[in-house]
Amino acid sequence: MENTAAQHDAYAVEYDNQVQAYDCHLTDVLFGLCYAFIQPGQRMLDAGIGSGLSAELFARAGLKVSGMDFSPAMLEVCQAKSIAQELKQHDLQQIPWPYPSGSFDHLVCCGVLHFLSDLETTFTEASRILQENGSFAFTTRFASPLESHLQKYDCQTLGGFAIYSHSYNYIETLLEQYAFERLKLQKCFVGDDLFNLWVVRKITGS
Predict the structure, then answer these.
(1) CATH number where 38 lies
(2) How many domains does the chain have?
(3) Distance from CA of residue 31 to its chain's centroid?
(4) Of 109, 169, 103, which is closest to residue 134 (Cα–Cα)?
(5) Is the dihedral of CA 177, 161, 157, 146 positive or negative?
(6) 29: Cβ–Cβ under 8 A, 6 or more apart, which residues?
(7) What is the mean pLDDT of the chain?
(8) Which domain, by its residues, includes 146?
(9) Which of 36, 48, 126, 183 has the fewest beta carbons under 10 Å from its own?
């Protein structure tokens, strides 16, 4: 994971400019899908906060943002924006995450999960750190109908990174297993790639 973090460090300073040049508005769309469920003053964790592109929109809406990422360079860029109340260097795949159980109203993981193969660790911690009825907004790379036979994911190598497309059935299985209900699901193109944008809620009593 140190090698992977170093890969992300390498483009951290130029990341925001690259996103703008690529006409990628994934963060805006995900924020719009979440807007009906958030209130000023609520606590949100951005897991894989990177340079803070997703977190900035929630901070502007009055949420108290915390963020974690395994890339020190990304965290430096984010820190300079004064978006988050606290930032921690931590790898999403290492559990437990460095937060108490039930400590957040919302969790966002935008543009991150397609770098991970197995998502059970993420869902385990999402369920733990969220309060009852807390929302979890995340993105996954779309697995085409031709890949519907996949039990979990397909993997490709793009730009030196292993990129995973998680099947719809796999995500639905995780939602049921970890007691989340789906609120919204939207498909969104980023260049030639298609992503699923999910907004789910932790079920009361889970």
Answers:
(1) 3.40.50.150
(2) 1
(3) 12
(4) 103
(5) positive
(6) 186, 188, 197
(7) 89
(8) 2-202
(9) 36
